[in-house]
Amino acid sequence: MIVIVSAILVVAVIIMLILVVYQKSVLKKIQDTINKKDTLSKAPIGDNIEATSKLNLTGDSFNQFNDYKEKYEKIINDDLPSINVALKDSNSNAKTFSLLQANSLLSEAVNSLNEIEDSMGKIDDGLNQLKDLDEQHTRAIDELDKQIKNLNKNILSKNYSYGPSSDKIEDELSNIKSEYQEFIKTVESGDQYTADDILNSLVKKIEIIESLMKETPKLYLSLSKDFPKQIDEIDRGHRTMIETDYNFSDDNIDENIEIIKSSINKSISLLSNLKIDDVKQENYKIEKTIDSMYEMMEKEVIAKRKVRKNIKLVYDYIYHARHQNHMLIAELDQLSKNYTLEHDEIKKAKLFSQQIHQIESIYNNDYQLIMDKKAVYSEVQSHQQDSKKQLSAIEKEQKDINDSVADLNEEENTAREAIQKFDFQLLNIRRKIDNLNLPGLQDDFIEKYNYSYKKVSELGSTINQVKISMDEINKKLATMDKAMEELISDTEDIVDNAILAERLMQYANRYRNNNEEVNAACAEAKNHFDNDFDYEKSLKIISSAIENVDSGAFNRIKKEYYQNKQNESKKD
Residue 468 carries which DSSP code? Predict the structure, then answer.
């Protein structure tokens, strides 16, 4: 029982401690909120309202000021006292441990106080803005006065530089002056909000007129001096060029000069109405037209200089290409008597002759135009450039053709040597086969030999004709070369297999009486040798039997044979 009572007491003490700690926390928050409320009560907004009331505000500015004043008075007279009462009630409840009620009242007071703080900040900012506007507008009056006087001074002192736009600029400046007077009256009346709208309008209009006064003189200078000077220069230059034998393919300079004069008048009219963007666009067109005329004239001047420089060079180029073509055609005609020219060499050479003739005709026509003082030099220059390019290509192709046929005689000699080599190889094959006294040869080898013999004979007949085709002969030689390689290889295989088979059969005689397997192999190998003429199979059968009774014998005999063969080859 004592334990239970002790436990209850301990719990009660703990709860009491918690309540005391929480009470202190709430009381501290209440005090902090009271301090904040007192700080807001002492805020110098009242002084700000009093200072602002001396600005002699009117209109929207005055109404806005009254609104700020009424809101502030409500905060001081109603809202803050109400919060003060709530904070006292919260404090009383906290001291009597009605902590929940105290906390609720405190929370409401804190929220209200935050709202008041926000409102007072806006009121203070609004009052400062009214005072700032008043100060800004007072300064603006002096600044605008200086700007307007400077503008007026510039338009009077440099009136000539604005040309027909000066009247309009003066009208715009007059409107600005009127609006400026309205701004002064509005500022002095105290309607700062309306004055601020007027000020913004004035600033934009002054920026516009400053821009006009900056751009207009340059535009008018182009229209009144630069463009007229340029078209006069073009007109005089054009006439001088015509008098000094220049010609133009599309001579529209006189027409363009009249168009430009009309465009200048149009642009001046636009400038007098301050349509600056339209003036810029029109001036741009005028500049482009003037540039194109300068370029047209300069093009002919440069072209004439280049034409005179290249006229002999092009003639020499034509002469050289024509001479080269004559020599090539003569060479091809001579070669065509003995060789078939299968790549249209003569046709191409004659086509080049036609092209050279056409180039020469253009050259002669241009030359005559120059002599008659009717040449358009830019066109002549273009013809010269084309001619040099075409002649260069023709000379290169003519050289390629000449190089391709220059080796025909050498190719013929090489072909004759190749045919003689094939004849010797066929003779050598026949000699090797005959020297072996073989019982016969298989049909496929005989066919290959006869085919090669026939083709070599045909090649000999072909190359001995009066007119030959080296392309055809070279193709047949390439085919024959491959066929001859195969035939020589087959011949070597027959010779090697036959000799080795005979030697092994002789070597096998020492084993025939004592070894039935060797005896049978000898009989079979001899049958393939004498009757089937299959020397490879004969060698395979006898070598296998020998290896079974005398391992390594076949390799020794074969090694000895090839070594002797190599030595014989070196002697030859």
Answer: B
Of residues 253 and 104, which shows the higher confidence score?
Answer: 253
What single DSSP character describes residue 249?
A: T
Collapse the DSSP code of 92 into the 3-class scheme (helix H, G, I; strand E, B; otherwise coil) and give the result: helix
HEC string of 497-566 equals HHHHHHHHHHHHHHHHCCCHHHHHHHHHHHHHHHHHCCHHHHHHHHHHHHHHHCCCHHHHHHHHHHHHHH
Residue 427 in tokens: 């003779």
The pLDDT of residue 281 is: 93
Average pLDDT rounded to a whole number, residues 358-375: 91
Structure tokens at 93: 């409840």
**Sign (positive or negative) of CA dihedral 157, 161, 166, 170:** negative
The residue type of 64 is Q
Rounded to 5 degrees, what are φ and ψ at 542? -70, -35
Distance CA(541)–CA(271), nearest Å, equals: 117
Contact by Cβ (8 Å): 248, 376 = yes
pTM of the model: 0.51
**Helices 45-53 and 59-74 sit at what angle, rounded to 10 degrees?**
150
The 10s digit of each residue's pLDDT in 489-507 is 888 888 888 888 898 889 8
Read off the pLDDT band of 408 (50, 70, 90): low
Task: State the pLDDT confidence band at 133, using cuts at 50, 70 and 90.
Answer: low
339 secondary structure, DSSP code: B
Through-space distance between the first and last CA atoms of the chain, rounded to whole angstroms: 139
User: Model confidence over 459-495: pLDDT tens digits?
Assistant: 766 666 666 566 676 787 788 788 888 888 888 888 8
